[in-house]
Amino acid sequence: MRVGCPKEIKNHEYRVGLTPGSVREYVAHGHEVLVETGAGAGIGADDNAYRAAGAAIARNAAEVFARSDMVVKVKEPQPDEWAQLREGQILYTYLHLAPDPEQTKGLLASGVTAIAYETVTDERGGLPLLAPMSEVAGRLAIQAGATALQKANGGRGVLLGGVPGVLPGKVAILGGGVVGLQAAKMAVGLGADVSIVDRSIPRLRQLDDIFNGRVHTRYSTVEAVEEECFSADIIVGAVLIPGAAAPKLVSRETLSGMKKGAVLVDVAIDQGGCFETSHATTHAEPTYEIDGVIHYCVANMPGAVPVTSTHALNNATLHYGLQLADKGLKAVIDDRHLRNGLNIHKGRVTNAAVAEALGYEVMEPKAALAAA
């Protein structure tokens, strides 16, 4: 199979779908790899590094899309990219379709087979290809929030860790999954006063054991979320319903009761955001203010640290990518976890959460593959 890797074109996206090390693995499995010139510049990997790993270098993205049987990316394809996809081709990347009807229409029209990193599962019920970027985003959420909290950046002017004789800043984390855990680790490390709100009692018990009393855990109710928002300096939105649009946990009305200059960091923005007032921003202009509250809603947070992010992502995606290259669609038929990653196939939506969010009729993945 010929595996293609174009350069990412989303605003301030410096990650790349394949590292030179991953290219070597594909080549060792007998596949051809075609990498767009300059694709690895953001991680310090030049064209010669890819050539040394066994890749051929394409002059532009059009050549990659035209010649590849499988396209490996990081972020969802942009309009110029989905127009170049075709039936019989496999797209392997993050998609986040539920809040993105236009991309969904584009992929359906193309006839491509689209496998989303964020819905591939594992034996433990986890999301192994989403987890590494959730870890990065969770840790970055506190860095970004602490920076936005500085007065010169529009924030309250609070130091998260405080100093002797002055109370530390308060961080409220909505969601105790991978993002929430990593955000809490960073915030606790800085000396902040940290609360985690979640709907799972077993998960709250786990978090209580992990932090040994260094964080406050609360069961999620409307009242609990409001109280945490009203008292916090930074609120991290870290909720996830796999494949589906994020629930809106914080209303516009809630902002009026929050501290002026408090910061909302919406890590769920890829899935539409969990704050009613959220809309996607970029690393070029990461924040905006509504009712005196600073919103940080960058849709590709891990892109700010592309070296760390790309290697972490490739560590997770390589196994399934090699299955796809080795076996084609048979890999999707044979592996139920990879099958859970199938979101679109030959003009049909095959993920129930995406179909429900966007009003499509869902076709079960096995049925879609069999029909084709």
What brief labels describe this structure?
single chain; 372 residues; alpha/beta; 2 domains; eight-stranded mixed β-sheet; seven-stranded mixed β-sheet; 37% helix; 16% strand
Explained architecture:
- The chain has 372 residues and is an alpha/beta fold.
- The chain folds into two domains: 2-119 and 306-371, NAD(P)-binding Rossmann-like Domain (Rossmann fold), CATH 3.40.50; 134-304, Rossmann fold.
- Helix content is 37%, strand content 16%.
- The chain contains 15 helices and 15 strands.
- The chain has helices at residues 20-28, 47-53, 61-67, 79-82, 101-110, 131-148, 178-189, 201-211, 222-231, 252-255, 306-327, 329-334, 336-339, 352-358, 365-371, and strands at residues 2-5, 32-36, 56-58, 70-72, 90-93, 113-116, 170-174, 193-198, 216-219, 234-237, 263-266, 287-290, 293-296, 342-345, 348-349.
- The strands form two sheets. Strands 3-2-1-4-5-6-14-15 form an eight-stranded mixed beta sheet, sandwiched between helices.
- Strand 4, helix 4 and strand 5 (90-93) form a beta-alpha-beta unit.
- The mean pLDDT is 96.
Tell me the layout of helices and strands.
Blueprint: E1 2-5, H1 20-28, E2 32-36, H2 47-53, E3 56-58, H3 61-67, E4 70-72, H4 79-82, E5 90-93, H5 101-110, E6 113-116, H6 131-148, E7 170-174, H7 178-189, E8 193-198, H8 201-211, E9 216-219, H9 222-231, E10 234-237, H10 252-255, E11 263-266, E12 287-290, E13 293-296, H11 306-327, H12 329-334, H13 336-339, E14 342-345, E15 348-349, H14 352-358, H15 365-371
Parallel strand pairs: 1-2, 1-4, 2-3, 4-5, 5-6, 7-8, 7-10, 8-9, 10-11, 11-13
Antiparallel strand pairs: 6-14, 12-13, 14-15
Helix pairs in contact: 1-2, 6-7
